[in-house]
Write the structure tokens for this entry.
Amino acid sequence: MGKITVQVAVNAPIEKVWDKLNNPRHIEQWNQASPDWHCLNASNNLEVGGKLKSTMAAKDGSFSFDFEGIYDEVIPQKFIKYHMEDGRVVEISFEDKGNQILVTETFDAENQNPEEMQKEGWQAILNSFKNHVETT
């Protein structure tokens, strides 16, 4: 099982990037890989041992799934590490590049789908996040 990395440079201050990545009402706005999907609900207890939960669904009602992570490490405005129910690990780092914040996510690939498909899906969600931060 390999690791996959996706990243995006967001044109916003770190305080805004951090809030919109972690605030459940914002997660519900950006957490989808394509316009025909949406995030029905989200909750986030951003502390070690706390849980991140969201439900993503096709807008036509044909499919939905729950996503859950448990935080292992949280360094405000710098780094987040959590693991999913299947034990896979996700790390998110925030790097100040002057007037941009570089958000990098590295995650353990799952073995159900090709790695390229996984990378495209996670990158699409991260792109949706960038768009949400920069337009709201």
Q: What stands out?
A: The longest strand covers residues 64-75. Helices lie at 14-22, 24-30, 115-135. The beta strands are 3-10, 37-44, 51-58, 64-75, 79-84, 89-96, 101-108.
